[in-house]
């Protein structure tokens, strides 16, 4: 079986709300997962059709085709696969023919969309939290980060990892933009890896946030089009912008987000930042939080919400 043939400011819908108010003109995905969604990724530009893959705590990986018809958007669930535990991360191959998934069942699997085969490609001793694909001039692999305190790199032609890196703590978040990878650990550790020739540690970063990291996203230098830093989100409703080699101390800064006024002027509701994404052309960033909001920001020495 073969599967092939925004611009907003801030928006929220209270949990449990049945209101039809929809100023952002959002479209609900049909046949959604039956439990919380842990990760979503759009298909790469190599594909002529847009697909969305989603991982869920209901143990499934789902793939939808996104169809635009005039001012309307329709979604069609093309296929789904199942792990033996919640699925925490997904990644596309560069050509868009394969989807990789990481699960609490301690395995990572590869879903070939042309044949619909779903096979194991990685194994850890604890749940796998993150999964990314790496395409370097001299190697291609899948990187998995686990709660067993290891980072493993897998050549899909072998059942054994081509490299295993022991870590001081569990992997909580990670991102890859060749030739750089950034890994966030339990205990707020941050390690940057360079991926040229072979993966190796580049430097450890002093954590810029006081509370546990939840998500991390690499951003590019817009002129050179190469990775130059990352944004880090925490459980404390705060984001840090961190350059790998900051030319000015003011280049690194933090800002508050996903907070609201509580029952009194002295109390504030604070929510975790669950994900961060950068626009590939303009460098603006979006944050999504446990308050049910998504916000768009301009990354400067000071941050202004759009």
Would you kindly provide a written description of the structure presented here, covering whatever features stand out?
- Strands 1, 24, 25, 26 and 27 form a 5-stranded antiparallel sheet that branches. A 4-stranded antiparallel sheet has the order 2-3-4-5, with no helix packed on it. Strands 6-7-8-9 form a 4-stranded antiparallel sheet, with no helix packed on it.
- It starts with 9 loop residues before the first strand and ends with a strand.
- The chain is 0% helix and 53% strand.
- The chain has 306 residues and is an all-beta fold.
Question: What features would you highlight for this structure?
Answer:
306 residues; mainly beta; five-stranded antiparallel sheet; globular; disordered N terminus; WD40_PAC1; WD repeat
Task: Describe the secondary structure blueprint for this structure.
Layout: E1 10-12, E2 37-42, E3 50-56, E4 60-69, E5 72-82, E6 87-92, E7 98-103, E8 107-112, E9 117-123, E10 128-135, E11 140-146, E12 150-154, E13 163-166, E14 171-177, E15 180-185, E16 190-194, E17 200-205, E18 213-221, E19 226-234, E20 238-243, E21 253-256, E22 259-261, E23 268-270, E24 273-278, E25 285-289, E26 293-298, E27 304-305
Antiparallel strand pairs: 1-26, 2-3, 3-4, 4-5, 6-7, 7-8, 8-9, 10-11, 11-12, 12-13, 14-15, 15-16, 16-17, 18-19, 19-20, 20-21, 22-23, 24-25, 25-26, 26-27
